[in-house]
């Protein structure tokens, strides 16, 4: 109980400690979550849908998760399950938080609830009436597992440093009042001088005799440097608290040159490990102590209990991902639009929607193959050479009889190209099997980028080379026939 009171006082008095603890709790409470069925069985799917609906209808369920995550600081946290009946189904009306001071471990490692009738030993909670969440920052008893226990020393040192700092600031901010008296001054004159000096500090007024003198020494003359030991100690304690709660300091301390953006991103990966551990521990507690009775009361105790899954995602460099996909596309790796839409979170366009088209390409399409735009420079020629021109869509133009053979030849060339692509698809897929296996291995992009150079020499290109050779021969023959024509 005394420890719980200390932890409560620490959170109320220390702004930095309260901030990092709130960041730690809200990081989990703000995640998206879902209830996943135990299996694909129809009954398990029905149970999963029921549990998901019940959790989402609990009044203040998000706040209850934050209450349970209070175990991060104190080592344990508890909520009382308020049961109800709806449509002949046992449901959870709400989850009521129980103050850690009311949790007792009298002669037992299991929690007991202190009541007005029993303030010492407490009572054993009824079955399926309590959610007791434990946090394992360290091995041992639940009361010794919270991170606030490790932060207590830093809080103590910081608290004393701030008090001394306040006293120092008050004294240092005022000038030194120095009284001088003659050796022949009587004791009464000396006492009057001391009284006057003290009165000057509060009333700014005093009476002294002519035989005494008061001198004011400015505060700036008494400071022999710019370093502040109290501020240094407070900042050190804050950094230690950040390490204990968040596992790093660069997202909370940006003083000097230590809080760079790149280093902060690296340190944030450490927080991701903590976030995964916190969400996994909370999901396990909710499954075993909330979903288990919910399934047992409504479906029977021999049915499978679904899982709670928190959506913990690592921030990706989408530019690097896009560049990797672009490289694979240039190598001929087959990728569907559905896969790219799901991978980058961009929905596929629907019928009737206006599409965004590259302006240069659109301008080239509208001007036709014989136009170079207003500039007519070499850039336009390069653009024309790289663009697939929609010749068949220019029926509205004034086409002469001399243009029709050219258009027909272009159509035949496009058909030949399409047949060549279809014939080489199987060969390209066979060649890229090692690349597919490399990507399916689950390695990160840097590893894949390095390994691609090693895989490149082992690609089987014989079938693809044969297909390209045949396409080149056919294209040359077609060109010779066209050149000998009218």
- Strand content of the residues, in percent? 5-15%
Number of helices: 17
Rg value: 38 Å
Class derived from helix and strand content: mainly alpha
**How many β-strand stretches?**
9
Unreliable spans: 369-398
Cα end-to-end separation: 103 Å
Q: What strand order characterises the main sheet?
A: 3-2-6
What overall form do the CA principal axes indicate? flat
Helix content: 40-55%
Q: What string gives the helices and strands in order?
A: HHEHHHEEEEEHEHEHHEHHHHHHHH
**Mean pLDDT across all amino acids:** 78
Structure description:
By secondary structure, the chain is mainly alpha-helical. Among the domains are: 2-148 and 270-310, no CATH class; 398-486, no CATH class. 54% of the residues lie in helices and 10% in strands. The chain is built from 17 helices and 9 strands. A hairpin with a 7-residue loop joins strand 4 and strand 5. The longest helix is centred in the middle third of the chain and has 39 residues, at 261-299. The chain is flat and about 130 Å long. The relative contact order is 0.08.
């Amino acid at each position: 109980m005394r420890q719980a009171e200390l932890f409560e006082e620490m959170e109320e008095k220390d702004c930095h400690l309260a901030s990092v603890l709130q960041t730690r709790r809200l990081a989990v409470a703000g995640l998206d979550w879902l209830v996943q069925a135990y299996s694909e069985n129809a009954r398990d799917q029905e149970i999963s849908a029921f549990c998901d609906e019940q959790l989402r209808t609990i009044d203040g369920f998000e706040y209850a998760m934050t209450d349970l995550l209070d175990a991060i600081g104190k080592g344990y946290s508890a909520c009382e399950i308020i049961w109800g009946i709806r449509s002949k189904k046992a449901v959870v009306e709400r989850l009521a938080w129980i103050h850690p001071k009311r949790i007792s471990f009298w002669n037992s490692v299991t929690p007991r609830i202190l009541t007005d009738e029993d303030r010492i030993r407490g009572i054993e909670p009824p079955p399926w009436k309590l959610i007791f969440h434990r946090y394992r920052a360290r091995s041992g008893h639940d009361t010794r597992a919270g991170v606030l226990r490790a932060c207590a020393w830093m809080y103590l040192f910081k608290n004393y440093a701030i008090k001394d700092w306040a006293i120092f600031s008050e004294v240092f901010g005022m000038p030194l009042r120095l009284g001088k008296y003659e050796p022949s001054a009587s004791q009464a004159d000396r006492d009057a001088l001391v009284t006057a000096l003290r009165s000057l500090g509060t009333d700014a007024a005093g009476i002294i005799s002519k035989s005494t003198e008061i001198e004011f020494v400015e505060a700036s003359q008494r400071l022999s440097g710019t370093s502040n030991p109290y501020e240094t100690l407070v900042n050190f304690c804050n950094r230690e608290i950040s390490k204990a709660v968040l596992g790093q300091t660069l997202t909370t301390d940006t003083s000097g040159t230590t809080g760079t953006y790149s280093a902060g991103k690296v340190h944030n990966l450490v927080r991701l490990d903590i976030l995964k551990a916190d969400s996994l521990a909370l999901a396990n507690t909710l499954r075993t102590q909330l979903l288990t009775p919910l399934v047992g009361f409504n479906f029977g105790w021999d049915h499978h209990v679904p899982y709670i899954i928190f959506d913990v995602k690592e921030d990706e460099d989408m530019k690097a991902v896009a560049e990797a996909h672009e490289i694979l596309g240039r190598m001929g790796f087959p990728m569907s639009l559905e896969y790219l839409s799901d991978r980058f979170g961009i929905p596929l366009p629907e019928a009737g929607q206006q599409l965004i088209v590259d302006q240069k390409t659109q301008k080239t399409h509208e001007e036709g193959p014989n136009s170079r735009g207003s500039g007519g420079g070499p850039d336009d020629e390069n653009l024309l050479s790289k663009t697939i021109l929609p010749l068949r869509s220019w029926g509205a133009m004034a086409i002469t009889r001399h243009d029709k053979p050219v258009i027909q030849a272009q159509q035949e060339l496009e058909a030949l190209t399409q047949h060549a692509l279809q014939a080489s698809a199987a060969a390209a897929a066979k060649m890229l099997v090692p690349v597919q296996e490399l990507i399916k291995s689950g390695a990160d992009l840097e590893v894949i980028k390095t390994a691609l150079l090693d895989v490149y020499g082992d690609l089987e290109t014989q079938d693809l080379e044969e297909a390209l050779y045949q396409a080149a021969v056919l294209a040359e023959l077609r060109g010779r026939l066209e050149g000998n024509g009218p």
